[in-house]
Amino acid sequence: MYRDPMQWEFIRRKVLQEEMSQRAVSRETGIGRWMIAKIIAHKKPPIRKTRTHSHPRLGPHIPTIHRLIAEESRTPLDFTHSINDIYEHLKSCEYFTGGYSTVRDYVTYLRRDRPKKRRALDIWEHARDTLAAVEPEDARIFLRSMSQSKPPSLSRAKVQNFMRVTTLYAEKSSVGAIEPSAEDRARDWLHSIVVGSIPREQVFQDMGECDELPALLTMAQSSKRIVRNRALAILAARRGISGRATNRILGIARHSYQKYLQIYEEHGIEGLLVRKPSSNRKFDSEPLKQAIFSLLHEPPSNYNINRTTWRMADFKEILAKKGHPACPDVIRTITKNAGYRWRKARLVLTSQDPEYQQKLARIQSILSNLKPNE
User: Rounded to an integer, what distance in angstroms lies between the CA atom of residue 259 and that of residue 240?
Assistant: First the structure.
């Protein structure tokens, strides 16, 4: 609910003292009239009532959760029990029958205002390097014993993360630093273009002067993905990044990449910004256009409608019965493209002759029987 006290007082003064209507205040402030009425009824914003949760399934296990959370603050290790570890502990040791989301919501609620814990011992800053220096089997046994205690001192996720870092550290120590691949360098470069972390002057220096380069960089930072991908594909091609790598990085098909390059070569920047019209737009259908104008020429009385001009609802219904369903927007678009607004078309194009259909059929019959020399 709206609770700004200054705005609250301003609205009450406008209505109660300056005798301004609630409708005018709503129009001026943009606040709904039902909220204006509530502000008039209360001198100050009402205090919001807090909801209380009973926790029928989790209730007997709440002390255990508090104990596990409290243990995190008493250890020198900078770690927290993962929610999945707490959930599994409750299920296996205390036979908890509730769901994972119940435990997740309650643990998140307990940790919402907890300040970020600082490490107590400086030695833990170098713990990974220390364990990486010992024999791999000893480090593995130590970590496994830490993660399998009840409750675990280290979560499974942290152990797995440590093993990944240790493996990478060992590979770098034995064979030297791993050079990033060409695709990784291309991905980093394109990402820096999108987020704007690389100066434009450096981009101009790397790719050479180009009149359309500033426009391409602006398009590369667009919020529309298709515009961004088109610009990045052109920039990647000009920088010499392979099409295969560009397709994988941007997640586009090969024919789309080739189409972007072809459009840029033929039409330049303007071609990249033009959106291809859909090929199945209903208001481009020739049979539908003919059916609409054919029906417009007939009077409604031919279809047992006691009117001299068409109404949109009647016109739409009869058009659907003839096998050409169309919504009012499509009908209006077709008549407008022909130079008539709907209101004018139903007056100008509709014939008032009740025998219009018979006369039209007679004329068509005569024209169809004409010889080439007539």
Answer: 17
The model's pTM: 0.36
Distances (CA, A) of 316 to 215, 285, 333, 355: 46, 16, 14, 22
Quick one: three-class SS letters along the chain?
CCCCHHHHHHHHHHHHHCCCCHHHHHHHHCCCHHHHHHHHHCCCCCCCCCCCCCCCCCHHHHHHHHHHHHHHHHCCCCCCCCHHHHHHHHHHHHCCCCCHHHHHHHHHHHCCCCCCCCCCCHHHHHHHHHHHHCCHHHHHHHHHHHHCCCCCCCCHHHHHHHHHHHHHHHHHHHHCCCCCCHHHHHHHHHHHHHHCCCCHHHHHHHHCCCCCHHHHHHHHCCCCHHHHHHHHHHHHHHHCCCHHHHHHHHCCCHHHHHHHHHHHHHHHHHHHHCCCCCCCCHHHCHHHHHHHHHHHHCCHHHHCCCCCCCCHHHHHHHHHHCCCCCCHHHHHHHHHHCCCCHHHHHHHCCCCCCCHHHHHHHHHHHHHCCCCCC
pLDDT confidence band for 251 (50 / 70 / 90):
confident
Contact of 283 with 330, CB cutoff 8 Å? yes
Sign of CA dihedral 335, 341, 342, 345: negative
Q: Do residues 348 and 341 lie in contact, with contact meaning Cβ atoms separated by under 8 Å?
A: no
Nearest Cα neighbor of 220 from 202, 240, 198 is: 198
Average pLDDT over residues 305-323: 87
Rounded (10°) CA dihedral 149, 153, 156, 157 = 170
352 vs 214, which has greater pLDDT? 214
